[in-house]
Design goal:
Elements lengths: L19 E4 L2 E4 L3 E2 L2 E2 L2 E5 L5 H7 L7 H18 L1
Antiparallel strand pairs: 1-2, 2-5, 3-4
Length: 83
């Protein structure tokens, strides 16, 4: 995992606004917050500091070359836009 000072928040869980935050390399849903705690997320790797796990969410290791290219482009587009 790469260590950034703070990964950016960005839209991921279906919202048009930033609804994902990174905690220890995994994405958590900012809309699932109750009693001072986030309760939804933690299964998807962060594209900024845990890229390998993020790509695996999309099935990278089992993907054909065309699918891998699409996953790579999606990951790079997020980095370009939010870093």
């Amino acid at each position: 995992m790469n260590k950034l000072k703070q990964c950016p928040e960005f839209p991921f869980f279906g919202a048009s606004y930033p609804d994902a935050t990174c905690i220890d390399g995994y994405l958590w849903d900012l809309d699932k917050f109750e009693d001072g705690k986030l309760y939804g997320g933690g299964e998807v790797g962060c594209p900024f500091c845990n890229e390998k796990e993020f790509k695996e969410y999309y099935g990278y290791s089992d993907a054909d070359e065309e699918e891998k290219e699409m996953i790579d482009k999606h990951t790079e587009a997020l980095k370009q836009k939010y870093l």
